[in-house]
Amino acid sequence: MADQSNTIKALHILAYGTVFGSNMHQTLLNGPMGLRVLPRAQFSHFQQNIFPPYFAIQSLLPAFLLWTLPKFKADRKSVVALGTSFGLAVLNLVFVGPRTIRVLRKRTHQETKDKTRWDAPGPKSEDMKRLNWSFAVWHWFSFWMNNVGLVTLGWYGTLLAKGLLGQGIVKVFGTIY
């Protein structure tokens, strides 16, 4: 934006902190901690309910960041970093995430039909083998898309910091900052 107000600039920084922080928190704390301390069924229920709003935030905030991109940072690298994060989050929100959840629910239903857990030792029905493979593939895609999004957000953060330091904080944000 050519002549951004200080409010828009401050909102840009807050939005970046929120999207990067929530991604770090979900990826490095909530997921691993939940898997470790919650029973599998509760962890699965938690993940199925947290991911739609999480990926919505991971989609909306990079779009806002692109819209409010500071004029000193409106370069190709920033657009690629934020655009990649945005695109991967949207794919996770509307396609990969719902697909993963659908397969997970089918697998849970298959456990009831087979009268055994998906990870129980011993032979598995052909349907369970297919669902286990399908879940592993979709979960892998979702996991890596989220992690690449985290890396691109970190990359944008370094670009933003360079711009702020190169421009001088007072020059960029005005005399209040």
Give an account of the 3D structure:
The chain has helices at residues 6-37, 40-67, 76-114, 126-167, 169-173. It is mainly alpha-helical and 177 residues long. Helix 1 runs antiparallel to helix 4 and helix 2 packs antiparallel against helix 3 (76-114). It is elongated.
Task: Lay out the secondary structure.
Layout: H1 6-37, H2 40-67, H3 76-114, H4 126-167, H5 169-173
Helix pairs in contact: 1-2, 1-4, 2-3, 3-4
Q: Strand content of the residues, in percent?
A: under 5%
User: What would you call the structural class?
Assistant: mainly alpha
Mean of all residue-level pLDDT scores: 88
Number of helices: 5
User: How far apart are the first and last residues' alpha carbons, in Å?
Assistant: 19 Å
| Helical residues, percent | over 70%
Q: Got a strand count? A: 0
Q: Low-confidence segments, ≥5 residues, pLDDT <50?
A: none
| Largest beta-sheet details | none
Give helix and strand order, one letter per element, not per position. HHHHH
Q: What number of structural domains do the residues give?
A: 1
CA radius of gyration is 20 Å
